[in-house]
Design a protein that fits this description.
Elements (H helix, E strand, L loop, with lengths): L4 E4 L8 E5 L10 H7 L4 E5 L3 E3 L2 E3 L3 E3 L2 E2 L1 H21 L7 E6 L1 H12 L6 E5 L17 E7 L7 H13 L3 E7 L7 H14 L2
Parallel strand pairs: 2-3, 2-8, 8-9, 9-10, 10-11
Antiparallel strand pairs: 1-3, 4-5, 6-7
Helix pairs in contact: 2-3
Bound molecules: D-malate (MLT).
């Protein structure tokens, strides 16, 4: 399949699949508990990023903190979107109901998938994202719902970056909900609860 990954099937029919995308230095195991807190019944697909930075797995190369290798990012975005398509055939989940949950570097590649390969996601929850790239053409995201969660004291992701990304999604006609957690780069409890409530609301 090309990616080391976890797949946890759901006992329920016609349910959603969560695509879990970890941060720098994470693995396919890191976000399982977070995914379960956000949806108990969804199937879970959780790959490990293939790019190593001093041994730390990531989903694409960067030149420095917050400075991305855009060519590599485009290649890795396609590779990951292709993986989701292949996984949906192998594990028989519905490609029309895949919700990405990404943290930090994982949120950035999820944002890139939304901008370049939106057909593989129906919604996304992005914790601490930045603008990964500016696409050549603005995609039509009018059928996508996106929850963006920033840390108001995050030293890695400036507030304006998160706002710029939310604006880019709005310009693409997505339904965007922005939440601010009173925290740094680390995840807080309230934003997880808010993400769960948001997902159950948009899934009705
Ligand atoms: C990134 O490289 O994607 C961002 O700087 C977030 C991070 O991984 O620290």
């Amino acid at each position: 399949m090309g990616f080391i990954h976890n797949f946890l099937d759901s006992n329920e029919r016609n349910t959603m699949t969560l695509l879990l995308l970890h941060g720098t230095g994470g693995t396919e195991d890191d976000l399982i508990q977070l995914g379960r807190e956000i949806s108990r019944s969804a199937a879970i697909l959780s790959p490990r990023g293939k790019v190593l930075e001093n041994g730390a797995p990531r989903f694409f190369r960067r030149l420095a903190e917050g400075v991305f290798d855009v060519e590599d990012l485009k290649f890795r975005t396609d590779e990951l979107a292709d993986f989701v398509e292949k996984a949906s055939k192998l594990y028989s989940f519905d490609l029309r109901n895949v919700v990405a949950i990404g943290y930090s570097n994982g949120a950035n590649i999820a944002a890139s998938i939304l901008l370049l390969r939106p057909e593989v996601l129906s919604a996304a929850i992005l914790f601490r994202p930045m603008v990964p790239l500016i696409p050549d053409t603005i995609p039509d995201l009018s059928k996508k719902s996106i929850f963006v969660s920033g840390g108001s004291r995050d030293p890695i992701v400036p507030k304006g970056e998160t706002e710029r990304l939310a604006d880019l999604f709005k310009e693409s006609s997505a339904k965007v909900f922005v939440y601010w957690e009173d925290s740094g780069h680390e995840l807080g409890m309230r934003e997880i609860t808010e993400a769960r409530k948001w997902l159950s609301y948009i899934s009705k």
